[in-house]
Amino acid sequence: MAMTLEEFVKRTGAEEVAGNIIVGQMSERKIVGVVADGTFNLNADGQTILAALEAGDPDAADKRAPRKKATDLAGKVAE
Predict the structure, then answer these.
(1) Is 11 buried (19+), middle (13-18) or exposed (0-12) by CB count in 10 A?
(2) Are 55 and 39 in contact (CB under 8 A)?
(3) What is the C-alpha to C-alpha distance for residues 53 and 13, in angstroms, rounded to an integer?
(4) Where are the domains of the chain?
(5) Prediction pTM value
(6) pLDDT digit string, tens, across residues 32-52
(7) Using a CB cutoff of 8 Å and minimum separation of 24, what contacts does 10-16 make?
(8) Which of 13, 24, 44, 79 is close enough to 28 for a disulfide, judged by CB 3.0 to 4.6 Å?
(9) Strands 20-23 and 39-42, how do they pair?
(10) Which of 56, 36, 57, 61 lies closest to 46 in space, CA to CA?
(11) How confident is the model at residue 13 (pLDDT cuts 50, 70, 90)?
């Protein structure tokens, strides 16, 4: 199954930045492909995400870390 760039971006939450296709949040961001001359090519990470999407995994690109609990300045978990 072929997937358009628009569909890939919609299903993964990816962003196109300066010709790069990027997925993830904050420090977990990574380049999964490039866009040049109206076509896009996925690297190995992008191909893995695409294969998971085609296999039916809706959370294939959701690589966000679980939210940490707030701590005070001494490092104790706030209640």
Answers:
(1) middle
(2) no
(3) 12
(4) 5-54
(5) 0.67
(6) 999 988 888 999 998 988 888
(7) 11/53, 11/60, 11/61, 12/49, 12/53, 12/60, 12/61, 13/61, 13/62, 14/61
(8) 24
(9) unpaired
(10) 61
(11) confident
